[in-house]
């Protein structure tokens, strides 16, 4: 065996380097879960129009940097509408989990940038601004 082949053989036997993803941080978990909850809420509204109770659920526009989001999450979990609707029960479980993570486990990692409760009622629409001269 030639001396240059031994290192190559060892490298091939070792296999590809494992790509270890970075561990979730509290902040990234809160952000991911809040997006899941918002998406599930929108999906619920789109797929369950036959359930009249869905119309009366509190809205779930979530901004984890707005202090009022904690009250919004509590209100959603405590809302008496839609008992016994499996999709709503699953969503309430996720909301409860998000509230617990925000209020207990990740309390020190979260920075509230506002306490504007109206911003959670009437979110600012996201617009895309194109560079000058483009349409």
TrEMBL record:
<dbReference type="InterPro" id="IPR029253">
    <property type="entry name" value="CYTL1"/>
</dbReference>
<dbReference type="GO" id="GO:0048839">
    <property type="term" value="P:inner ear development"/>
</dbReference>
<feature type="signal peptide">
    <location>
        <begin position="1"/>
        <end position="21"/>
    </location>
</feature>
<keyword id="KW-0732">Signal</keyword>
<dbReference type="Pfam" id="PF15153">
    <property type="entry name" value="CYTL1"/>
</dbReference>
<dbReference type="GO" id="GO:0002062">
    <property type="term" value="P:chondrocyte differentiation"/>
</dbReference>
<protein>
    <submittedName>
        <fullName>Cytokine like 1</fullName>
    </submittedName>
</protein>
<dbReference type="GO" id="GO:1990079">
    <property type="term" value="P:cartilage homeostasis"/>
</dbReference>
<dbReference type="GO" id="GO:0050650">
    <property type="term" value="P:chondroitin sulfate proteoglycan biosynthetic process"/>
</dbReference>
<dbReference type="GO" id="GO:0045944">
    <property type="term" value="P:positive regulation of transcription by RNA polymerase II"/>
</dbReference>
<dbReference type="GO" id="GO:0006366">
    <property type="term" value="P:transcription by RNA polymerase II"/>
</dbReference>
